[in-house]
Specification:
single chain; 492 residues; six-stranded antiparallel beta sheet; three-stranded antiparallel beta sheet
């Protein structure tokens, strides 16, 4: 059991880790949403054109992040030693709306490198625990020394109104803290107010009324699980967005330069040589010429007519800029981005070649493997989530079986119905059972159960089934008694 000082110290340490991660999370979120700070190849370009393209972005980051998430769909959980998916677990999944929220969790993992799942019992409905996917900017988990799986503590910190809240989850306790949310003065606080602010910034136990604080953790384990995106043996998980940012900046810069070139040099530029700039006389009120003033060249740009008296005047021009080189560079940059992230080219390039269906499937091989890797990484955390759900329901044996169970996923590969039907028919001929084929088709365990019930009802309604039942139920005719033959006498 942790003391108040120990719990407060853990909160402060975990909050410091959250603050350290916040810069990367904020940056990745901004790039996913298309808020890209334009980078410049030279200070001069930024000085003259920075404001012009401040709000422009050609957002490929979102496509790269969304492409694997749209193929990550959980269809059920299978405990060790079981042949059918657990329907009670699936009920908890559905009641908590995790069909939709799991997509948010997977997206958070892809964009930020990790997301979290929190499981807690609901006293109003003990059979359906509360399961929520949590944002990585609010949650952090501390692991036991030398372990990447044994959770020691977890913190969830959030802001509501004018207060900050924090909940510390330990294996045996749950601590709840709060503090005022301070607004910084633009001119900075005085020395006296700095001391007051520091005092107010300290976490204090939250007033829970009749509810104890701390309270006992009935699960006996830390109820928060991490879903890493691309874990490594040393260091934090890697975000898919992190490696895209540099190329995204280059693509935006090329577009900005293309727009600038199209504005200044997309038309043939002409220059007049051997002539002075034309002038017009300036008249006074009496109509007398009192001077001259240069002709407004913008007027000639509109009228497209200019006259010169000099016999030496001549016109030269230089050709318009080749804007195609910019679009070619952009296509190359997008191609590099596709190769680095294993995103199919037809996801990123707005044109489709006349490819056969098999060629398109081959083009998506990298994305399929990328999704399958994420299913392994997220599946480990989701399996632990299923175990926590069983523990919250008081099902100790099922929780132990789920530790070595597995998560059922929808097929990551995109196939046409004709291809899928042909493949399943061949598997059926090899002897695979119908229920396995239905799961392979992409149905959830609940849908498979419904299909099996409909199939049994269809068989019951078949006249041939009734005839077979009558034939099996009728008494078969008695077999004729065997006649014992006398042995032939031996010949004398």
């Amino acid at each position: 059991m942790a003391t108040y000082e120990q719990a407060l110290h853990l909160v402060q340490l975990l909050e410091a880790e959250l603050i350290a991660r916040s810069a990367g999370i904020t940056r990745n979120d901004a790039y996913y949403r298309g808020a890209h700070p334009l980078k410049y190849a030279s200070n001069e370009f930024g000085k003259f054109h920075g404001d012009r393209y401040r709000d422009f972005s050609d957002n490929w980051t979102q496509v790269v992040a969304d492409s694997p998430v749209e193929r990550m769909t959980v269809t059920g959980f299978l405990a060790s030693g079981e042949t059918e998916a657990d329907r009670e677990l699936w009920k908890v999944w559905q009641v908590n709306g995790l069909d939709a929220d799991s997509q948010l969790g997977f997206l958070g993992s892809v964009v930020h490198g990790r997301s979290f799942v929190l499981v807690w019992g609901d006293p109003r409905n003990p059979d359906v625990p509360v399961v929520t996917f949590e944002d990585p900017s609010q949650c952090v988990i501390a692991y036991e020394p030398g372990s990447r799986r044994e959770r020691r503590a977890a913190l969830k910190r959030w802001q509501d109104g004018n207060q900050d809240f924090a909940t510390l989850y330990l294996a045996d306790q749950v601590w709840k803290f709060a503090r005022p949310r301070l607004t910084q003065n633009v001119f900075g606080p005085s020395v006296q107010m700095q001391d007051v602010d520091e005092e107010l910034k300290r976490w204090a136990p939250r007033d829970m009324g009749a509810e104890p604080n701390p309270q006992v953790n009935p699960l006996g384990v830390v109820p928060m699980v991490e879903l890493p995106n691309k874990p490594v043996l040393s260091g934090d998980p890697i975000s898919d967005v992190h490696g895209v940012i540099a190329m995204q900046d280059a693509i935006n810069l090329l577009w900005a330069q293309l727009f600038t070139a199209s504005d200044y040099a997309s038309f043939p530029q002409r220059v007049i040589m051997g002539a002075e700039r034309p002038v017009i006389p300036k008249l006074n009120a009496a109509g007398e010429v009192v001077g001259t003033q240069p002709v407004d060249l913008e007027k000639f740009a509109v009228d497209r007519v200019m006259m010169f008296n000099s016999k030496d005047a001549r016109i030269g021009e230089w050709q318009a800029a080749n804007l195609g080189m910019y679009t070619g560079l952009i296509e190359v940059a997008v191609g590099h981005l596709a190769a680095q992230t294993r995103t199919p080219q037809h996801y990123l390039v707005g044109k489709m070649a006349n490819l056969a269906e098999g060629a398109l499937l081959a083009a998506e091989t990298g994305l399929v493997k990328r999704v399958e890797e994420k299913q392994i990484w997220s599946g480990q955390g989701l399996r632990e989530t299923a175990r926590l759900i069983a523990m919250a329901r008081g099902e100790t044996e099922k929780a132990e079986a789920l530790r070595s169970g597995r998560v059922l996923w929808k097929d990551a590969e995109s196939r046409s119905h004709a291809q899928m039907a042909d493949a399943l028919l061949k598997l059926k001929q090899l002897g695979f059972p119908f229920q396995w084929l239905a799961l392979r088709y992409g149905l959830t365990p609940t849908e498979v159960a419904d299909v099996m019930a409909l199939k049994e009802a269809e068989i019951e309604m078949d006249p041939a089934t009734e005839l077979s039942r009558q034939l099996i139920g009728s008494t078969p005719p008695a077999a004729p008694e065997a006649v014992e033959e006398e042995p032939e006498s031996e010949a004398v």
